[in-house]
Amino acid sequence: MAANTTVDPNAPVVYEQYEDIDQQQETYIVGMWAFLVTEVMMFGALFLIYALYRWKFHGEFFIYHEELSWQWGGLNTMNLLLSSFFMAKAVQAAQLKKTKVQMAFLGLTIVCALIFLGIKAIEWIPKFQHNLVPTDSFHWPPHEPHGSGGGSPEHARVFYSLYFIMTGLHGVHVLLGALVIGILMFLIKTKNKVITDYIPTEMVGLYWHFVDLVWIFLYPLFYLIPK
Amino acid sequence: MADSTHESGHSHHIVSNKVLNWTFLQLFIAMLATIAAARLPFDGPKFFPGMTGFFNQFQNMWWLTNLIALGIAIFKAVQVIKYFMGVKYASNLAKLYCVGGFFGFSMLFILFWDYVGRPYEPVQGWERMPETAFPRDRIEVKEEPAGHASETPVGESSH
Cα separation of A55 and B43, whole Å? Predict the structure, then answer.
């Protein structure tokens, strides 16, 4: 048993329920994956609903998606991929115990998250102004459509409901991710006893990469619908 | 290619810079490919004057671009999971959770059978029910005298 017999003061603490540090770390990672699986199932149900209506209203979904900007969406995809890269570098720095590099990359990841939310706001605000949010004031076709403005109001409402629910839920995850990364940075900065090794950074990283994964699918599904 | 290094004293893998940079480059190229795949075959002549004839042959192949876009998205997701999330170097138990999670997600699509089969459901009288979650438009409804079957109450047979 390695518990309480560690000589190296910088070595991570092995808690008494574990055989060794490897088992402890594996448990953390598997626990995080168990959480991510529940997230997969939550988003999965929405992807299933999307797939059904896309299948049914394929031609119309192309018309409705013309109001979305694939350029802004593409920029945000690039931004999130970059943030995932920064997060992977932060985990690597944490494993190598390069705290300053780790903090720099975590900071860059937060910057990317804020840019993502900013671009999302740029996309969303005009849709609120043009009554494309599926509430009582929803109106289709828009007054100045970017596309043909065809299709039916009922089916357009389905598309925009899916758009706002799925990108909105994803946006909430981005916001929470940025908050969690900020808390992690604070704990590292204050040398909190919770941070014994790279594992907290790795787990936050797993969450952040999952957020990136969801967007990898959302982007082509909403912004790049073929005619 | 040495794609990972070991930190002395611990068995966890540290993904090398080379692998991280290469993965990011692949993701970036794949993103551009997704945009191209979604737009070129149908809007191609706009971007490539003189190639209308070439691109016109794809006009009715919207399913192909869907397939390509989905394929590229899956490729990107696998790269992120393998290298950024480090599942390639994780324990078998972590791999099992990861694969199991996405397998469970794919199982959701079994529900499609309900929607595929619904237009052919044998319950008489349901043909004229109002559109609910999914329209039953593939049923051939026989024309009946006006004001008769169109007002069939929900759940009752028209007979």
Answer: 21
> What does the pLDDT read at residue B41?
55
Biggest CA-to-CA distance, chain A? 72
List, as ranges, residues 26-65 from B with C-beta within 8 Å of A: 27-28, 31, 34-35, 38-39, 41-43, 62, 65
CA distance linking residue A209 with residue B94, whole number of Å? 16
Q: What percent of chain B has pLDDT over 70?
A: 53
Do B105 and A26 lie within an 8 Å CB cutoff?
A: no
Nearest Cα neighbor of A207 from A23, A26, A37 is: A37
Contact A29 B94 (CB under 8 A): yes
Considering only CB atoms, which chain B residues are within 8 Å of A88?
15, 20, 23, 83-84
Q: Tell me which chain B residues have a C-beta less than 8 angstroms from the C-beta of A21.
A: 10
Was domain A21-223 assigned CATH 1.20.120.80?
A: yes
Phi, psi of B6 (to 5 degrees): -105, 135
Give the residue among B20, B97, B19, B15 at the shortest CA–CA distance from A28: B97
pLDDT tens-digit readout, A67-93: 999 999 999 999 999 999 999 999 999
Distance from CA of B155 to the nearest CA of A (A): 24
B4: β partners: B15
Residue A5: count other Cβ atoms within 10 Å of its Cβ.
7
User: Following DSSP, what letter does each residue of B80-107 receive, concatenated?
Assistant: IIIIIS-GGGS-HHHHHHHHHHHHHHHH
ipTM for the whole complex: 0.89
